């Protein structure tokens, strides 16, 4: 009778130890998931900072270009920026960051960049001369392709006649 009691207690003790081990495994899994989520959040923040810094650098470079220089339509800049974003995305995917996490970071970066651009924007709609100059600059920029670059002022002036 005494041996049965010890045997039952031993079985109960084994069950309790198994339960405790399972609870520890679950806790470790939760901790690992939380750490992975924190790492993804850090990666997203780093991506946002990198994209905002790249956009700010591009804006600063554009401000440093004298007005008499030829400024294109931005296709080369956009291509270079996209190439850099893809290169960074490839690095992150190789680090086992899920592509949806990368996209979420890009979307957040777009919102931040849009906000920065809106804050930097200048509204000249109240001053007719400045507004007209803005429209001409937009037309010149649009016509600044490799083919029409020489005649962009002529074509921009054609649009000016239709504004009056």
Name the features.
5 helices; rod-shaped; mainly alpha; about 160 residues
Task: Describe this protein's structure.
With 164 residues, the protein is mainly alpha-helical. Among the domains are: 39-61 and 73-121; 123-164, no CATH class. Helix content is 80%, strand content 0%. It has 5 helices and no strands. It is rod-shaped, with a radius of gyration of 30 Å. The mean pLDDT is 78.
Radius of gyration: 30 Å
What ranges have pLDDT less than 50 throughout 5 or more consecutive residues? Answer: none
**Would you report the number of β strands?**
0
Biggest sheet record = none
Task: Determine the strand fraction and express it as a percent band.
Answer: under 5%
Separation, N- and C-terminal Cα atoms: 111 Å
Global morphology:
rod-shaped
Mean pLDDT: 78
Helix/strand-derived category reads: mainly alpha
**H/E topology pattern:** HHHHH
The number of helical runs is 5
| Helicity, as a percent range | over 70%
What's the topology here?
Elements: H1 2-64, H2 75-94, H3 99-120, H4 128-142, H5 152-163
Question: Outline of this structure?
Answer:
This protein has five helices and no strands.
């Amino acid at each position: 009778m005494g041996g049965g009691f010890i045997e039952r207690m031993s079985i109960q003790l084994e069950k309790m130890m198994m339960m405790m081990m399972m609870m520890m495994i679950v806790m470790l899994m939760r901790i690992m998931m939380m750490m992975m989520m924190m790492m993804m959040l850090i990666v997203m923040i780093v991506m946002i900072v990198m994209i905002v810094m790249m956009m700010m650098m591009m804006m600063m470079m554009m401000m440093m270009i004298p007005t008499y220089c030829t400024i294109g339509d931005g296709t080369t800049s956009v291509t270079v920026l996209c190439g850099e974003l893809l290169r960074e995305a490839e690095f992150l995917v190789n680090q086992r960051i899920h592509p949806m996490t990368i996209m979420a970071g890009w979307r957040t970066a777009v919102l931040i960049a849009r906000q920065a651009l809106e804050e930097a924007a200048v509204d000249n709609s109240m001053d007719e001369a400045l507004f007209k100059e803005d429209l001409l600059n937009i037309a010149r920029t649009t016509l600044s392709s490799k083919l029409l670059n020489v005649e962009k002022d002529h074509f921009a002036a054609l649009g000016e006649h239709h504004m009056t």
